[in-house]
Amino acid sequence: MTESANITKRAKSNLAFTLVDLPEQQRKHMGQLYAFCRIIDDIVDEDGMNSEQRHEALNRWEQLIHFQCEPLQGVESEVCSLVEEINLDTKPMMELISGCRSDIEQKQPATREDLIAYAFKVASCVGISSATVMGASPAARDYAIVLGFALQMVNILRDVAEDYHKYNRIYLPKADMDLFGVSEEDIKERRYSYRVRQLFAYEAALTEKYFCEADEHYAGLSAADRHALIPAQAMSYIYRTIFYKMRDDEFRVFEQRYSINNLSKIWHLLRARLGSFEMPNIANISEWAIFKTKSQGETKP
After folding, report:
1. Taking CA 14 as the corner, what is the angle to CA 6 and CA 56, rounded to the nearest 5 degrees?
2. Which of 47, 156, 169, 278 counts the most CB atoms within 10 A of its CB?
């Protein structure tokens, strides 16, 4: 098993779970892309490095994907092979590195616009690259961007407490917190107040808007693109289910981490697979065609 495949298998992420539906070659390529994304994220989040070392590690990956240095055997070589084999546009990969780099000395987003700009880099750009690797056409770009926003918003809402206590980060916009009178101290002390619930509900409305927009974009894609994007649409269903669990529970994210079990994930993968095919439109089957079939049957000796 390749190093990229090992990283993907060990991660046990929702995305890795949905890749089982891909053809072997695309599954291999998605494993390589996932390993790249996982490593970039870990460089910023995992213990054992200071800020300077984190920046140096990210610099090396920028050089690697532009073939400006020799890759080591293993995941570096595998990611470089991916870029070369399918002529993958490295701009979204560079945007991901830039977004993760900003987390090294993270500053709370001042506005929703700042938050969405960050989400574009760390989530939508992953979606753009993934859509290409899965075999979708450029028409899928808007779907990938908006779905990335939705998925990142779910992560932000679900991980509010963990992001603060583990990484000292707040991704909720300062302007939104001020609007509802929620302070950093409220997040720190895990105060599940009416103001906090209203803030979460406010962000939830934006999250649901992005899910709805993603659905609209997906419905407008060709059957071939929808089929290619089965793993992405399965991710949409999985994350939306987690989102609805949080919403229906009034976002008790200070007390628990919301998730769904593997059986539910399998169901959503099946839903995505079924929804990717063109279904016959019964309304367009003419009465004349039915009558003709009956008539032909009646004239047989």
Report:
1. 55
2. 156
Please state, in angstroms and rounded to a whole number, the distance separating the CA atoms of residues 199 and 111. 14
- Which contiguous run of DSSP H or E holds residue 225? helix 223-228
Q: Find out if CATH 1.10.230.10 is the number for domain 3-7+14-277.
A: no
Tokens representing residue 42 in the block = 């870990």
When pLDDT is averaged across residues 177-194 and rounded to a whole number, the result is 97
Query: Which residues are CB-neighbours of 80 under 8 A, at least 6 positions away?
Result: 64, 65, 67, 71
Give the model's confidence band at 276: pLDDT under 50 very low, under 70 low, under 90 confident, else very high: low
Instruction: Inform me whether the pLDDT recorded for 273 exceeds 60.
Output: yes
Identify which of 83, 46, 45 has the alpha carbon closest to the alpha carbon of residue 61. 83
* DSSP string covering 236-288: HHHHHHHHHHHHHTT--TTT------HHHHHHHHHHHHHHTSPPP-GGGS-HH
Q: Tell me the two tokens of residue 12.
A: 């046990």
Is the sign of the CA dihedral 157, 161, 167, 171 positive or negative? positive
What integer pLDDT is reported at residue 65 of this predicted model?
96
Lowest-confidence pick of 5-14, 32-41, 167-176, 217-226? 5-14
Q: With left for phi above 0 and alpha for psi between -120 and 50, is residue 135 left, alpha or beta?
A: left
Taking residues 157-174, what's their average pLDDT?
96
